[in-house]
Write a structure and sequence with these properties.
Number of helices: 12
Radius of gyration: 19 Å
Number of strands: 12
Strand content: 15-25%
Low-confidence stretches: none
Number of domains: 3
Helix content: 25-40%
Mean pLDDT: 91
Shape: globular
Largest sheet: 5 strands, antiparallel
CATH architecture of the largest domain: 2-Layer Sandwich
CATH topology of the largest domain: Uridine Diphospho-n-acetylenolpyruvylglucosamine Reductase, domain 3
Order of helices and strands: EHEHEEEHHHHHHEEHEEEEEHHH
Strand order of the largest sheet: 4-5-8-6-7
Distance between the termini: 49 Å
Oligomer: single chain
């Protein structure tokens, strides 16, 4: 039950939504509500106004930009993202990450933009966006701009800003996502996404770390080598233990090993993907 007192507004377009957010301190963006509504219910966050952008057509849909990038509207549901042919063919790590989120109800209500923006939660989509070298498109008081998925994962959306889309570079089918879920919450105890590029692998991890992040040192150790399980585990053993955040009955050593095992599986799956 939500006992908080707030106004609810459903704007007719994105411009109206931005005016509402900019003109009402404490206003929050509502899309799928899978993170925001529980937080309002348990009192961990507050809002003076909810600006519902879920039905704005300009935030929906999946297609390609003129330069060939994949454009995923922020209000696209996780279920739509997981099943879309363009995503399955060109960004399989994103499709798998969306498919791994929660249960069918969460995937049918939760949105791509909301999953990327879920502050304080180790959600699945950000780590796949990092591996894919994606960019997050934002609309705010200064107009539209894009930031790297890595910068967005570190800072989240600025005030009075709406996430409008996720932009993924030209198709990269040699990619994969692996996850070990926390049984109680279904959030990742550890999740890993990889994408194999001509320059070597891109590897990102979440759940086991304080926030979603790439592992450039692991990538460097594996560049130009065969991605055997032994090589991957050795690359992870060389990482500082403080990178991995123990909790929920786990140790840093266990999480580091788990991240290595999941990365080895993901690289094997990516290599086996049809070109």
């Amino acid at each position: 039950m939500i006992l908080a007192d707030f106004d609810y507004v459903r704007p007719a377009g994105l411009d109206e939504a931005l005016v509402l957010l900019g003109g009402h301190p404490g206003a929050r963006v509502l899309a799928g509500g899978q993170s925001l509504l529980p937080d309002l219910g348990n009192g961990t966050t507050t809002a003076r106004m909810l600006v519902d952008v879920r039905r704005l057509e300009e935030l929906r849909g999946i297609g390609r930009t003129p330069d060939g990038a994949l454009r995923i509207g922020a209000a696209t549901t996780l279920a739509e993202l997981a099943a879309h042919p363009l995503v399955l063919a060109g960004a399989p790590e994103l499709a798998a990450a969306a498919r791994a989120n929660g249960d069918p109800q969460v995937r049918n209500m939760g949105t791509a933009g909301g999953n990327l923006s879920a502050a304080g939660r180790p959600t699945d989509l950000p780590v796949a966006a990092l591996a894919a070298d994606a960019r997050v498109e934002l609309a705010g008081p200064g107009g539209r701009r894009t930031v790297t998925a890595e910068d967005f994962a570190a800072s989240g959306p600025p005030p009075a800003t709406v996430v409008t889309a996720l932009l993924v570079p030209a198709p990269g089918p040699a990619a994969a996502f692996e996850k070990t879920a926390d049984r109680a919450t279904r959030y990742p105890l550890c999740a890993v996404a990889v994408r194999i590029t001509p320059g070597g692998p891109r590897i990102a991890v979440t759940g086991a770390t304080a926030r979603p992040q790439r592992l450039p040192e692991v990538e460097s150790r594996l560049a130009g080598t065969a991605y055997t399980t032994e090589a991957v585990l050795a690359a992870f053993r060389a990482e500082p233990r403080e990178l991995f955040v123990p909790g929920r009955g786990t140790s840093a050593e266990y999480l580091g090993h788990l991240a290595g095992v999941l990365t080895a599986r993901a690289l094997a799956r990516a290599q086996a993907a049809p070109s």
